[in-house]
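Lab notebook page, bench 4
Experiment: in silico fold of construct C2
Operator: M.H.
Input chain length: 440 residues
Purpose: comparison with the prior construct
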Amino acid sequence: MRLADEFTQNMDSKITLPVVIPFIQQLLQSQQYILRSTGHLLLSAIIEGSREQLQEKAQQDLLLQMATQSIQGDPSNRVVHSAIQTLGSLCRDLNLDEDNIEVETVDQSQNAEKTKSFFSSIYAQEIMQSIIIAIKGVDIDDGGGQKVRRNPCFPVQLMACRMTTTFSDNVSKSILKENCQILVQVIFELLYQNQQYITEMANSESEKNNELQRIQQQLLTSSTTQLDEDIANTKFSNKLKAAYKIRVQSAIALTTLFDRIEEGCEQYFSVVCPIVMSGLIGEGMSRIVDIGTQIACVASQQDKEYQSACIDCVMALFSGIGKEKAGQYLNQFMDEIIKIEKEMIFDPNKSQLQLNQQQQQQSSDQTSSLQHKIYKDESDPRIRSIESLYVRLADLVKEQFVPLLEFAMKPLLRKAQKRSGIRVLFSEQSLSDNLRGNSS
């Protein structure tokens, strides 16, 4: 694939494209799924290497058709997985339909505007339909007049969620608002199903045993060899890991959609917010330890990743609908952020590591907890989500933000110092003292 990318970059597209595209079309018509899959991987690489040459509408129509036809009609999920990669390259690397121009603010702090090309409503609807089919599966004609079900698989669903994020970043807000209802519904259902599955496996011994029995039965019907319990446990482990990943990625996909459609997300709030809030609170967090410690370790990290995704998703919803419509969920959200912050930070009175670091300070009078804010695990994904939401949350809730100042001050000052034209006039200690005095 790298060779294909370099080949198209270094050769004249007038020579390469007329030769390569027909060859790829032949691969996509092969009876062997491995060749059809290879065709899409090659096509994806060519799109990345020829973005400047593939700007004619007829070329783009052909490339889009090649990708969507495989996603919507190929019986092999491996081919579908590769075709989604092609679709992602189309969204990411080509200015589909250059006549559709919108102006977007790319940096509100500098009030700068950027003109960006988006693809048309026809392209957008075709891409969204392909994503939906990839997630839900489809009935395919077997060539003899019979319909054969292509059930979805975890890798394809995961790729489709990632494709949603790429798509949302490259489609105009107006087109997305008008056409994304079914896509939002399908991705939310995917999130809910996987969240429920993980919760059941974590909290119900009978459900977990039933799932293992179902996997064992599938192994018995598909193999003539004697059942190996280790194989069944491995399959269960892999299914659980896949559910963790899809749970996170579907929340990320929803966040991207909600950030783009802004006030348009109000129609989804009453259904989506309770479920995502339950993920943030940690209801049903997975602690499956009796089939191997590896599962327990994965679950703990994945729970943090899911909480991080839920933080971003809830904040996107709140930003779209506003403070008043957020209602009781807003106070609950802020309480949970404080709890998570306290969980992630070492207590300076109890942590030996914190005391050792304080002793190394040159100045003995630097006692502000803000200056010594240290996380137990700097790689915790929730840190990024929480610190990035403070500006948006403060702007949304105004004076209600005061309880979060102790945790928010350091990241807020860091963000301020990075912005051009902003100079910090107070030290963290004096600013903290002033704010505490004003709030008392």
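Observations: The beta strands are 101-107, 112-117, 138-141, 147-150. Confidence is low (pLDDT under 50) at residues 97-117, 286-299, 361-371.
Next step: discuss at group meeting.
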